[in-house]
Structures are given as structure tokens and as C-alpha cells.
Amino acid sequence: MAMLKTILGNLLRPSRTRAPADMPDVPTVYRGALAHDAARCTACGTCAFVCAPKAISFTQDPGVSVSWHFFIGQCSFCGLCAQNCPTQAISLDAEVPTGMNSAAGDGLRLESIVRLQPCTRCGAAHVPLPDAAIAALWGVEEAERGYCPDCRRWAASARLRSAFIPAAAEEVHHER
Ligand code: SF4
Ligand code: SF4
């Protein structure tokens, strides 16, 4: 009898399963879908270094591009990659992760390609840095924005020399 009462009670009660529209809002601090912005990425490797389960990796097409790879199957959504990325190229959005732009077609991998660009001074292929990163690291010399790291080092060295030994800096400029 008791069992019948329970069954009847369950049948007459409205559904307790929430429809999608009734679901509570995802908290803003929720670490969900991971996104990567290739235009901000400097391929520094920090994200892969701090990722304990090795969910992030890189491959290279020498002289052409660096590819940033993410495998959701190894991700613990700790957020350390986004927290430590110096240019905020990674974000973990407050959304449940869904299918990704997987080159493998399994929806579990994300691939983001950082295209190399030729140095405007020597022509060497290098990862272009976001303007804000160049300004923070090297100042705002407009002519040096397209330089590769070697040429930026050379330019910084030349400026340093001209500040301390003007005559020697002139020689460096002529050498190059
Ligand atoms: S995503 Fe950020 S931390 Fe990772 S390689 Fe790019 S710039 Fe570095
Ligand atoms: S959220 Fe954590 S586990 Fe996932 S890729 Fe980033 S560092 Fe690795």
C-alpha cells in the first residue's frame, strides 16, 4: 500500500527535471570553454610550462608558423595557463565547453596557428608581438615594430651605446 502511495505521488507530482531555460546562470568565475587568440600569442611557451597535465603543446612549421595545441581530455580547468599568459591570449569563459575546431575532427582538440612574419630590417621570420607587448618591452620606436628579436636587441644595444659612448654607437650604425 505504501509503495502504491509513493508511485501515485510521483506520478501526480510535476517534473523535477530542469528545462534548459530554468537552469541557474553559470557563475562568472566558472572556468569553462578555453579559447586562444593567435594574434596575442607570442609563442613564449609559458602556458605549456605551467600546465601540469600537459594539455597544451606546440608544433612548428619552420619559417612559416608555430601552432598552439590544446587537448581538452587532459585539461583540469585549473586556469593557470590563462592566469600566467603574459599577453592574455588565453581565456576560460563561463560556458560549458562544446565542440572545438579540431583538425583531427574529434571535437576535443583546439589548434591555433601563429603565423611568422619577416623582420622589416633583416628579413628573418619571427613571431610578431602584439603592439602592447612591444611597447612594454622595447619602448615605442615605430621603425622597430617589425624587427625580429635579434634586430630589436641590436637596436636596443645601439641606443644604449649612443647614450654612454656616442662615438662608438656611430661605428655600430655604420657596421650594420
Ligand atoms: S598563449 Fe600566452 S603563455 Fe601561451 S605561448 Fe602564447 S603568449 Fe605564451
Ligand atoms: S586550464 Fe589548467 S589544465 Fe587546462 S590547459 Fe590550462 S593550465 Fe592546463
From TrEMBL:
* Name this polypeptide is given: 4Fe-4S dicluster domain-containing protein
The record's section on InterPro entries has: 4Fe4S_Fe-S-bd, 4Fe4S_Fe_S_CS, PSI_iron-sulfur_center
Any matching Pfam family: Fer4_7
Q: Which UniProt keywords apply?
A: 4Fe-4S, Iron, Iron-sulfur, Metal-binding
A GO term for molecular function: metal ion binding
Answer whether the UniProt record assigns the keyword Metal-binding to this protein.
yes
Q: Phosphoprotein: is it a keyword of this entry? A: no
* PROSITE patterns xref list: 4FE4S_FER_1, 4FE4S_FER_2
Domain 4Fe-4S ferredoxin-type: residue ranges = 32-61, 66-95
Organism annotation: Azospirillum lipoferum
